[in-house]
Automatic annotation (TrEMBL):
<feature type="transmembrane region" description="Helical">
    <location>
        <begin position="155"/>
        <end position="173"/>
    </location>
</feature>
<keyword id="KW-1133">Transmembrane helix</keyword>
<feature type="transmembrane region" description="Helical">
    <location>
        <begin position="264"/>
        <end position="286"/>
    </location>
</feature>
<feature type="transmembrane region" description="Helical">
    <location>
        <begin position="87"/>
        <end position="106"/>
    </location>
</feature>
<feature type="transmembrane region" description="Helical">
    <location>
        <begin position="12"/>
        <end position="35"/>
    </location>
</feature>
<keyword id="KW-0812">Transmembrane</keyword>
<feature type="transmembrane region" description="Helical">
    <location>
        <begin position="393"/>
        <end position="413"/>
    </location>
</feature>
<protein>
    <recommendedName>
        <fullName>O-antigen/teichoic acid export membrane protein</fullName>
    </recommendedName>
</protein>
<feature type="transmembrane region" description="Helical">
    <location>
        <begin position="339"/>
        <end position="358"/>
    </location>
</feature>
<feature type="transmembrane region" description="Helical">
    <location>
        <begin position="298"/>
        <end position="319"/>
    </location>
</feature>
<feature type="transmembrane region" description="Helical">
    <location>
        <begin position="179"/>
        <end position="198"/>
    </location>
</feature>
<feature type="transmembrane region" description="Helical">
    <location>
        <begin position="370"/>
        <end position="387"/>
    </location>
</feature>
<feature type="transmembrane region" description="Helical">
    <location>
        <begin position="41"/>
        <end position="66"/>
    </location>
</feature>
<feature type="transmembrane region" description="Helical">
    <location>
        <begin position="227"/>
        <end position="252"/>
    </location>
</feature>
<feature type="transmembrane region" description="Helical">
    <location>
        <begin position="118"/>
        <end position="134"/>
    </location>
</feature>
<keyword id="KW-0472">Membrane</keyword>
Amino acid sequence: MNLKARLRQVLAVGGIETLGVVFAGIAGLLIVNVLPKEQYAQYTFLVAASNLMLGISDLGLAHCVLPVIGTRAGEKSWVVGVCNQIFSWRWVMLSAGMLVVGPYWFYNTHSRGWIEPAYLIGSALYFAIVVMQLREHLSNTVAVVLGHISAINRIAAMALATRLVLIGAVLLLPVTDWSVTGVLAATAASGLVAVVMYRRALRKLEVPEVRLDAADRKKVDQHALKIFLPLLAPGVFLHVQGVATVLLASMFGSTELLAEVGAFGRLAIVLIVVDRVTNVLLFPVLARAPQGPRLGRIVLLVHAAYLGAMVLMLLSAIYGGRFWIMLLGAKYHDLEPLVWMMILSAVLINAAGFAFRTLAVRGLTAKQSYIVPVVLTVQVLYFWVFGVHTLEAVLGFNIATSLANFAVQYLLLGTRLSHLRTDQEAAS
């Protein structure tokens, strides 16, 4: 693909993801402004519980797809077969996620007195959302690997528009105990739209529904296990870390603190633009690129650009916090001095994820378990010294955790950079 075509793809995907951030920002602004803090705390908790469940269904499996497909990314049957086989394990692990998240959901629901019809129906809706998200992830992965970027953009735009319109309609109604349930129903409806559109698009693009034969399934499982097993322990740990601040607030904080932590989490949504553009356009290229000096140069350049963009975002939070806080509404205006803390933690953890994905698409997942003792040590020391009973303390805990993740992932990337830059033929 020439430079002009690649630039068009970047602009197209970047435009859709920017639109997605705008739509999500508007939807988030509506939700935060309209819902009382008690209901927003419920919404925050259910989002965290569903993210935890979805994370347990992954634990690194999603990072196996590109390395296993390898240079056969142009073979539709092979791509679909590999994706179906790897995602079959994700469905099994989703059941395990339900067993883990269930007690956590019950404890917080019961202790906060949230057991009521509207909340229970909302919880059921979020389980349905998780199921649809997993199905959407499968179809999206197939479309990304096969390079159907325009279809991905069209489906994303339609799902985003559906969610925004339905959430707006729900929040125009008088606020009741059923408002959160309505917001979740709108999210479920947009997920269903995406699933149906992906099914139609893949059928129109003549992408076959393939299941590998027993021999190929065995080969895929063996290859995926080599990548996945080093990720399992840190995967469990890191997915819990992904919702750590909400977990801490829900276990040790007030309902108001839980709502504030959830509201602040929305500020990191801007980073989704960069991450999704790189997921669609950059990492498939890195997975297919031949090992050698050129690959090493590409890795260095993209990480320099990524870290530069993150620094600019942090500076905007330090000097323009009042503009960021506008996304949250008047109820949260007193949190403006803390905006930089939230953005700093988001920048660090996203950069750590960027380094990890660079390694993962090349199958370099060894030594990821080192991150567990490092981060746990940092967290225990922080918890012992500062506690997590205020929003400042929770955000500080998040910064310490993110910094530890950042340091370990970039150390691992640095140690493997020479491997990426070594010509494969010369090394063999």
